[in-house]
């Protein structure tokens, strides 16, 4: 679930789920352990691979000011030198000291249960391969750039790091409650495409936005999409777009708010959301409910 995106735009992730596509997931699964993790064979990266990473990093970095949240901007340098694909063990060493998280290699998309189990153990799975140069603007499955650049910096933030672990634990429970689709919406609208309100204006914290050259600017500057306040039950009723930039973004006030709003037992929440969907339907991407407040944006100078 969780690691998807939009064709034709460069979010670096795609609408595919392990085991449900019409072809096997990309990557060498023969080398994976039972928990789907694998060693990062750093020596096998070519100069072209490092160059792709360097160019992707440089393109995103210059777009961050005024668009990415401060926590992300501060932590991105913890990934190490931007010229080479980072060594996962070196990033893990810094991350472990900061929040007790580790980065672990995976061959690509992994099954939901394995994904949740890793998050619950504070281990973030990062795809070990990088897109080909001809996939610079669009890659079907998440690669090392999306996973590392998009997701890992915020794992240096203590509150967000706890949120991610709680999400993994919640995922294991949702699997038993057959509620993964509702929970996937939470991941999508926060971890992948979340916006946060700051005194300086709206900023992105979602990895799908932060690893996308086009959506970073669009999400915080375009007048087109709807931006509504984070509301867990409203969010779980909301469909999302996988074929283009998002039509709706949910805005949090703080990572504390996000953590606290998602701390309660979801069992009764799933039941209530299912009832509301049965009576009033799902909410289409881009729809705004009567009386719902929207956040306005001010474009940065080009
Ligand atoms: Fe992702």
Give your account of this protein's structure.
Helix 4 (112-120) runs antiparallel to helix 6 (158-177), helix 6 (158-177) packs antiparallel against helix 7 (180-192) and helix 6 packs parallel to helix 11. The two termini are 35 Å apart. The strands form 2 sheets. Strands 4-3-6-5 form a 4-stranded mixed sheet. A two-stranded parallel ribbon has the order 1-2. It is globular. Helix content is 40%, strand content 9%. It has 302 residues and is of the alpha/beta class. It contains 12 helices and 6 strands. The protein has a single domain (29-280), classed as Phenylalanine Hydroxylase (Orthogonal Bundle), CATH 1.10.800.
In terms of topology, how is this protein built?
Blueprint: H1 47-61, H2 70-75, H3 88-99, E1 102-106, H4 112-120, E2 123-127, H5 144-151, H6 158-177, H7 180-192, E3 195-198, E4 201-204, H8 207-210, H9 215-221, E5 226-229, H10 232-236, E6 248-252, H11 255-261, H12 267-280
Parallel strand pairs: 1-2, 3-6, 5-6
Antiparallel strand pairs: 3-4
Helix pairs in contact: 4-6, 6-7, 6-11
Bound molecules: fe (ii) ion.
Can you tag this structure with a few keywords?
single chain, 302 residues, alpha/beta, Phenylalanine Hydroxylase, four-stranded mixed β-sheet, 12 helices, 40% helix
């Amino acid at each position: 679930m969780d690691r998807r995106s939009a064709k034709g735009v460069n979010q670096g992730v795609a609408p595919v789920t392990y085991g449900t596509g019409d072809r096997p997931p990309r990557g060498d699964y023969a080398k994976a352990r039972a928990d789907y993790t694998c060693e990062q064979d750093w020596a096998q990266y070519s100069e072209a691979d490092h160059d792709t990473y360097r160019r992707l990093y440089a393109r995103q970095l210059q777009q961050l000011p005024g668009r990415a949240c401060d926590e992300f901007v501060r932590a991105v340098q913890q990934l190490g030198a931007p010229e080479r694909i980072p060594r996962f063990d070196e990033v893990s060493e810094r991350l472990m000291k900061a929040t007790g998280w580790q980065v672990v290699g995976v061959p690509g998309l992994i099954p939901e249960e394995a994904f949740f189990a890793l998050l619950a153990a504070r281990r973030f799975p990062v795809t070990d391969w990088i897109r080909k140069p001809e996939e610079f603007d669009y890659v079907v499955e998440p690669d090392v750039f999306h996973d590392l650049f998009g997701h890992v910096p915020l794992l240096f933030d203590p509150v967000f790091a706890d949120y991610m672990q709680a999400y993994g634990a919640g995922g294991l429970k949702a699997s038993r409650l057959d509620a993964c689709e509702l929970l996937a919406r939470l991941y999508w609208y926060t971890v992948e495409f979340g916006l946060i309100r700051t005194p300086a204006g709206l900023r992105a914290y979602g990895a799908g936005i932060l690893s996308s050259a086009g959506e970073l600017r669009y999400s915080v500057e375009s007048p087109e999409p709807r931006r509504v306040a984070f509301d867990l039950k409203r969010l779980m009723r909301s469909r999302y777009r996988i074929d283009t930039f998002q039509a709706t973004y949910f805005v949090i006030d703080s990572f504390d708010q996000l953590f606290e709003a998602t701390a309660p037992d979801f069992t009764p929440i799933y039941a209530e959301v299912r009832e509301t969907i049965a009576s009033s339907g799902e909410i289409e991407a881009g729809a705004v409910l009567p009386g719902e407040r929207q956040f306005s944006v001010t474009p940065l100078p080009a």
